[in-house]
Write a structure and sequence with these properties.
11% strand; globular; disordered C terminus; six-stranded mixed beta sheet; N-(1-d-carboxylethyl)-l-norvaline Dehydrogenase, domain 2
């Protein structure tokens, strides 16, 4: 658990938890930490303590199993004193040892995150190996929690509120070099030997080390209870200048949807006004309130546990040997194809980027070239590495250059005939083991596979734009897609370090189908006479990244029109009978307002100025005399997406609710505080959700009407992620 040794009168506690890939916080490590720290503190021959690790990382934070148990527990039924003491125990021992009278040094050899970095904050001095891949930080806010072992109290006292508050609120993680600049650590070391030597040297020079907030400064009224925070205390003018507008900015950014950020601000504000012994109790109190909040439970389940499993390839067929993809062919050198080429080359694969001419393909290569230039200018990559990545991309107009590719990704326009043409043209040069993937966002894969001579090796691989930033890839199984094709595609997605979800075939699949309801419902609301500004503000206040009309402009209204025309041709459903179809048709055919691309859409885009909602909307669609509330609009936008996701699960498009949650957050920005679209339904409660859907259906149309299976679940007290979680498909 902890390897204990003494060298030159200095105790070295090296974390080394057996059976764990990383050192983590749990009851076993807690007991071992106390045992070994007490041993060192009580030994009169020990003059200082170095805390290090024998694993590749320093300390990773909370144990996953312990966290699951903690989140599953109903803390409201516990004795308050017992519950508090359980949550406070790490805080208590950290405080005990930082005031024990012996200098403590953290020798950080790898990742120090969450509770791992809080161990470092307990120490009087922090040295880290200068490894740019190492991450140091307190990421708890990203999953709905706050640092619960002193992080919200020690960090502001250490580096000041101005730097600490954004670091805590955003859950930042930084490299050792950046950590040194920020003041998170004191020193960098080139290798483990130098780090150990530096730690010993510091202990020898500081035999009576204390934390700065525990020092009594003679001649000044600055005792333990009046520590001067770097940059100014809460009561100082600078402190007031930071916290007052900071609170307003926090509300503007979070829209009140993220309780962890509010709790962190409260911890800092209240904690910095009292001594450390009381401050850490304030922190624990807020930590306990977050544990009982469904936001934290939902975010941790999806963004922590589910994401980890997805990134490990949980959906990959287990009986198919892994494929090391070495060469990838990209058909189409537009922004999407060029983005796919970039992430593939960045992962070390050879890339053949094909377009109708070499000139077009070379032009597409400019996109990765520009991204690499930015990486070099920002110091994230050296020039030699950038040139090496770019050299992996070969621009061509010849289909025969696709010989030897393990995977082909077609990224041409959303036109069935064009996709069929490039499929047949390319397949003639592929080996029998090569997989052909289509990056279509809406067209059914089974239909596209009809153009292929090998439908078993034909699959959908849906990227999101911009490819270099968007973390999700939606993999679509056609009726004849083989397990081998799926396994190879997941191997590829994992190699480019993106998160895969696997869905079954249908028009729009999962993500495009559900995301489309957000824009279509927003357009529909506007056309009914709800003020466009109210529609947009309701979207962002609900937690969506941008309003639905803004999204429609960005995606392009004429592109939505083309998709609707293709759907009309394939299904026979007229555009006018598709959600928001009449508005989209009018904007394209009559008004020629295509969106941001031609600077005219639901917004106006002046050359020199900020975009604004087009005033003509109010003439085309007069306002209702009585406008709905923001809450009503928020509910309508979120519920519309959610009922579509439920239908996807029932129809077997989605394989499980967890994939639906991951996809909704990563693909189109469904509010992360909900934990994803199915967690949102659970948070509302199925009985309430069904009741509200019926009300919305009566008012606005059958698209809101709940399914019979959803009614059964609600009647039986079931949920998508609860004890009675149902497999609907």
């Amino acid at each position: 658990m902890i390897d204990y040794s003494v060298e030159e009168g200095i105790a070295i506690l090296a974390w080394n938890m057996e059976g764990y890939p990383q050192n983590v916080m749990n009851d076993h490590s807690y007991a071992a930490f106390i045992e070994n720290m007490d041993k060192a503190v009580q030994d009169s021959q020990v003059k200082g303590i170095i805390i290090s690790s024998k694993k590749d990382s320093f300390f990773a934070g909370a144990d996953l199993k312990m966290m699951r148990e903690m989140l599953a527990k109903d803390h409201s039924q516990e004795d308050p004193k017992t519950a508090f003491e359980s949550a406070f125990k790490w805080n208590a021992v950290f405080r005990k040892y930082e005031t024990a009278g012996k200098p403590l040094v953290a020798a950080i050899n790898g990742h120090a995150l969450g509770g791992g970095y809080e161990i470092c904050l307990m120490c009087h001095y922090r040295i880290a190996l200068n490894n740019p891949k190492t991450q140091i930080g307190l990421p708890e806010a990203q999953i709905g929690l706050l640092p619960g072992a002193g992080g919200t109290q020690r960090l502001p006292r250490l580096i000041g509120m101005e730097k600490a508050v954004p670091f805590l609120l955003e859950g930042q993680k930084v490299s050792p070099a950046d950590a040194l600049k920020m003041g998170l650590i004191h020193e960098l070391a080139a290798n483990p030997e130098d780090m150990l030597a530096a730690a010993k040297k510091w202990i020898a020079a500081n035999p009576k080390a204390m934390q700065p907030w525990d020092e009594e400064k003679k001649g000044q009224i600055v005792a333990r209870t009046h520590y001067k925070v770097p940059g100014g205390n809460i009561q100082s003018p600078k402190g007031a200048q930071l916290l007052m507008p900071g609170t307003a900015l926090l509300w503007d950014k979070s829209k009140g949807n993220y309780p962890a950020q509010r709790a962190i601000m409260n911890c800092v504000y209240e904690g910095l006004q009292v001594p450390m012994d009381l401050a850490i109790k304030i922190e624990t109190r807020y930590f306990m309130t977050l544990l009982q909040n469904p936001v934290a439970k939902n975010m941790i389940r999806t963004l922590f546990f589910a994401m980890q499993e997805a990134n490990k390839g949980i959906a990959r067929p287990k009986d198919v040997p892994a494929t090391d993809i070495k060469k990838v062919g990209i058909l189409g050198a537009g922004m999407m194809g060029a983005g796919i080429a970039y992430v593939s080359a960045l992962a070390g694969m050879q890339v053949v980027l094909k377009d109708v001419s070499v000139e077009s393909a070379e032009k597409g290569k400019d996109y990765p070239r520009d991204l690499l230039k930015k990486s070099v200018s920002r110091g994230k990559m050296n020039q030699e590495k950038a040139e090496g990545v770019l050299a992996l991309i070969h621009a061509t107009e010849k289909a025969e250059d696709m010989k030897g590719c393990d995977l082909i990704i077609e990224a041409v326009f959303e036109n069935r005939e064009l996709k069929a043409k490039v499929t047949q043209e390319t397949e003639a040069f592929l080996s029998e083991n090569a997989v052909f993937g289509s990056n279509t966002s809406t067209l059914p894969i089974t239909g596209l596979a009809e153009a292929s001579q090998r439908p078993d090796n034909f699959i959908g691989i849906h990227f999101f734009s911009p490819v270099d930033k968007m973390p999700l890839v939606e993999i679509i199984m056609g009726e004849k897609t083989s397990a081998y094709a799926l396994a190879l595609t997941i191997d590829y997605v994992m190699k480019i370090r993106k998160t895969p979800i696997v869905v079954n075939d249908s028009r729009g699949f999962y993500t495009s189908r559900c995301f489309g309801t957000y824009t279509s419902e927003g357009i529909q609301m506007m056309s009914e006479g709800i003020h466009p500004s109210l529609v947009e503000r309701a979207g962002t206040m609900a937690g969506m990244p941008v309003g639905p009309l803004d999204v429609a402009d960005a995606v392009a209204i004429d592109l939505a029109y083309k998709v609707m025309k293709q759907a009309e041709a394939d299904t026979g459903v007229k555009i006018e009978n598709q959600p928001s179809g009449s508005v989209v048709k009018k904007f394209v055919e009559e008004l020629e307002r295509f969106g941001k691309k031609n600077k005219k859409g639901f917004y106006e885009y002046p050359d020199n100025g900020k975009k604004f909602i087009w005033p003509g909307l109010l003439e085309l669609y007069p306002l209702q005399a009585e406008q709905p509330s923001v809450e009503e609009c928020k509910k309508r936008l979120l519920h519309r997406q959610a009922i579509e996701a439920v239908r996807c699960l029932e129809e077997g498009v989605l394989r499980n609710a967890t994939d639906g949650d991951i996809g909704s957050i990563l693909a189109w920005g469904f509010p992360p505080y909900t934990g994803g679209i199915f967690s949102y339904v659970d948070m509302v409660g199925l009985a309430t959700f069904v009741k509200e859907l019926d009300e919305l259906a009566d008012q606005h149309g059958e698209r809101f009407r709940p399914t019979e299976r959803l009614r059964e679940m609600a009647a039986n007290g079931e949920s998508f992620h609860g004890v009675k979680e149902a497999a609907l498909a």
